[in-house]
Predict the structure.
Amino acid sequence: EKSYLSLLIDFIDSCNFYFSYKYDITHTAQTISQMSSETLSQPLWSRVDQRFFWNHHLQSHFIENQLHEYIIPVVDGFIKASALTTHDSPWKYIFISRRG
């Protein structure tokens, strides 16, 4: 049992997990802006991109029982924000990657 727990802890520590209570981080801002008001009124978990809903299986009992407020999609990914200067012009960029 301890070896399985150790493997699980090592796995979780090696990943970068992100979530948001209110905002869909599985879609691009462009995709979200093109969603209908009907789609946006659905529970967050039901409109996310299923390819990036890492904990979908773990949430299945909550989904089956329609416990929408307890279903929080988790995404495995990477986020880096940096500032840089080119030709004397400073600018900032954010790199976001999702793993499916």
